[in-house]
Request: fold
Amino acid sequence: MNFTLGEGELLLVQGGNGQGKTSLLRLLTGLARPEEGEVRWRGQPIQRQREQYHAEMVYLGHANGIKDDLNPVENLRFADGLQGRKFDADQAVATLERLGLARCLDLPCRVLSFGQRRRVALAALLLAGVTLWILDEPLTGLDVHAVALMEGLLREHLNAGGMVVATTHQALKLEGVKVQRLLVGKVAIPDASQVTGA
Reply:
């Protein structure tokens, strides 16, 4: 397996269940190491520049990675603290409001729906301000409006020169976006046009 991702590009990782999509993403994040070969960032193996690489990459997996006892703003403060970033409360609130969570700001995340908790995780993704997004099934649990919002966020990130590696079983509408497809495993994908892009 060999691929290169450039600025403004989306790599869509496709394959059936259990074929290694999530395992590939774990390799790309540095959470796992390949038995052979290497993952490179800006031409250098990520093992040699872990701190720099992790400062330019954010991963959103199946779990939302938020604490149920904290409210959305507190969760974003916690996420920034983990990454060593300065927390901007006004920006955090504005981002949560943009994602439709204005009425949930003071509620503990345990009382939010799955889709609302997913939006908190997406807010953390936006506030990270990094180049590379690695997303494992980012549309899981989102309603049709949230899917459209996610598509808009992806377009914005890519059009600004960001890069995205994502797995998804759902259709994405990303007109004007350069999309590469990577098939993992031996299971054929019935609809090869599930992502519409340029």
About this structure: The first helix runs from residue 21 to 29. The longest strand covers residues 9-14. The CA atoms of residues 116 and 167 lie 21 Å apart. The two ends are 24 Å apart (CA to CA).
